[in-house]
Structures are given as C-alpha cells and as structure tokens.
Amino acid sequence: MKKQLGPLDLLFPAPVMLVVSGIGDNANIMTVVWGSIVSGKPPTIGIAVHKNRYSLQLIRENKEFTVNIPSKDIVSQADYCGLVSGNKTNKFMDTGLTAIDGSIVKTPLIKECPYNMECKVTQEVEVGDWILVLGEIVETYLDENKLVQPKRISPDYAQIQPLSYFGNAREYRSIGEKCGEAFSIGKSIKR
Amino acid sequence: MKKQLGPLDLLFPAPVMLVVSGIGDNANIMTVVWGSIVSGKPPTIGIAVHKNRYSLQLIRENKEFTVNIPSKDIVSQADYCGLVSGNKTNKFMDTGLTAIDGSIVKTPLIKECPYNMECKVTQEVEVGDWILVLGEIVETYLDENKLVQPKRISPDYAQIQPLSYFGNAREYRSIGEKCGEAFSIGKSIKR
C-alpha cells in the first residue's frame, strides 16, 4: 500500500555541493543540494538558488561560479555554509577552508574539496521563488591521488568519500557499497 | 596537487530515477540520472532528456510524467530501462515492473518503486543537445511501511535502499552510513 504525502520538494539522494561565487576577498561559499548536470554537450550544470540568496547577487555580477564537492571529513564545514549568510560573515575565514585559483574563471575553488568544477553562466530560468542558474562546465579538477583509470578516467569514489543529502530526515550520508555496473547489469534482462 | 580533467559532465552522487511517460499500453520507462529539485515553491523537478529520446515525444504529448525511485533490489531492471528504447519494446513487460494508477496524472507509477512523484510539465529549457523538462510535483507516494515521523514526515531511507549513480566509473551504489544531521552539525563552527 502506498501513502500519499502531498506535493513534496523531495528527491533523493541529492549531491552536496559547495558553490563559490565572488572574487578575491568577496568570495563566498554556499551549500547547495538542488543541482544536476543538465546537458552533456556542452557540459552544463544547473543549480537552484533561492531568489533572496546573497550568492545570487555575486553570481550575477561575475557571470561565473565554481562547484566544489566536499568529502565527509568536512561535513561540519559543508553544513555551516548553509546555515549563515555571506552577507554577514566570511565563510572561508570561519571554516578555515582554502580558496585557490582555477585556470579559467576568476572565482576561486576550494582546495579541501577533492573535485571541483569551473562554470560560466549561460542561462537563468525562473521557477517560482527559485532561480535555476545554468553554467557551462569549462574545467574540472580532481586531487591527483584520487584518480583511477580502469576503462575510462574516473574519480576513485571510495577514496573521495563524497556526501549525499537525504531530505526531510535531513541526513548527510557517506558513500555506500557498489551494487552494480551501469550499462551492464541490465543486460541480464531479455526482451 | 590537483589534476585538470577537462570539461566533464560529471557531478556525484546522482539520483537514479525511473521516469514513466505515456498512458495505458503506451506507457514507457526511461532511466534518468540527471535531475534535481529546482524549486521548493511550487515544488518542481527538472530532468534532462536528450533531444532524440523516445520518452521526450511521450512527455510532450501528454504534458506529464512520473518519477519513480527504485531500490537496490531492482538495480538490474533500472539499468535495463536505460539500455533499450521504448520505441522498440515494452519495458514494463520485459522487466515485470507493474504500472499502477496515481491520482492526478494519467501516466502510471511503478508499484515496485518505494517513492513516486506525479509531475505536470510547466517549462522546457533547451540546453545544447538536451531538453531540461521542468515538472511541477503535484503528488508524491511512499510505501506505507517505509515512513518515519521523527520530527518531520520522512521516508525511512535505510529501509528504502535507494540507488546512487557515480559517473565515468559507471557505478550504482547503495546508501551509506549517516554522517551528520543537516542544519545542525555545522553549528559547532563559530563565526
């Protein structure tokens, strides 16, 4: 039996992202869990940002942002960046996270995050009280010692230990066991 | 040290979703891992669908779709629905998954998926070769025995065992350990 829960804004798991906007001393960190790749060609990410967010101003000023994937080691810092506004405090100073230069955009990356993306804003889509910011992914970075190359270049996820977010219960969770290879395990089923 | 990987379409973890489109005997299942909530008010989901996908035709015809979250028990069926086109076969018949009626849209839900969303298309956004389909979430369903209500109504994630997708390595993974409470664990950090 299924229970109707009403119209919830709930999808799981969600990726935990630290989105940096702003340049130099103005750089700010915002925690975002509503986002996804939205195109493979050109590679594009979409992040949903509430209209009132301070980071939205900074993204609009510079037309760029970076997405940084925290490991579970920095779950407290990741959560903190969703609790306070960059309008009132410097979250790099508060958390001790380190801003480092990328190569294409001026907005910094977060050194402690094992995977980073540089993004240039290409579109904004208004959806109710949120702005869906679309950014072309112009470069990505991975900690050098966290790369595997079995068949194709890939992060070593077990080593990276990225966070997942599960809404309503408000749980951050670490990576689970591998339970199948995509584009492969389904071949056991015949038409 | 960080290694530049180039402009990748890679964000992790990604939710594994079975998107149903079409009505009655035409109902089709498509596996989607590029999607996210994009607005809380009104609750809206965005899913990225390649322009050439058969499901895009069905979504456009009916202006609705459902999103169904598979558990790891049906990882093979979930993968299968990403391997073949609904233009050539009936994936409900092939997989044995069961189409059941929702209450608002005519597109069916998948009974075996513990969490389901009914969605009405509100916008389409063209992003390169992909169409980002935005749908207002008009109803959600959860298996009755998989609900917890600690502080707020929530799915019991450990019981649901949803899948995560990790790109490039092409790994499906199950849920990991809880490693923090959101909007809480960050309070240990002071300005």
Helix and strand element order of chain A? EEEEEEHEHHEEEEEEHEE
Q: Major sheet of chain A: order of its strands?
A: 4-3-7-10-11-6-5
Q: What number is the mean pLDDT of chain A?
A: 96
Oligomer: homodimer
Largest interface, counted with CB-CB under 8 A?
A-B, 109 and 108 residues
Class by alpha and beta content of chain A: mainly beta
Counted by DSSP, the helix tally of chain A is 4
Describe the structure.
The structure is a homodimer. By secondary structure, chain A is mainly beta. In chain A, about 15% of the residues lie in helices and about 45% in strands. Chain A has helices at about 55-60, 75-80, 90-95, 155-160; strands spanning about 1-5, 15, 15-20, 30, 35-40, 45-50, 65-70, 100, 110, 115-125, 130-145, 145-150, 155, 165, 170-180. Chain A has a seven-stranded antiparallel sheet with strand order 4-3-7-10-11-6-5. Chain A starts with a strand and ends in a 10-residue tail after the last strand. The mean pLDDT of chain A is about 95. The interface between A and B is large, with 109 and 108 residues.
Short précis:
The structure is a homodimer of 191-residue chains. Chain A has 191 residues and is mainly beta.
How would you describe this structure in keywords?
seven-stranded antiparallel β-sheet, 191 residues, mainly beta, homodimer, 4 helices
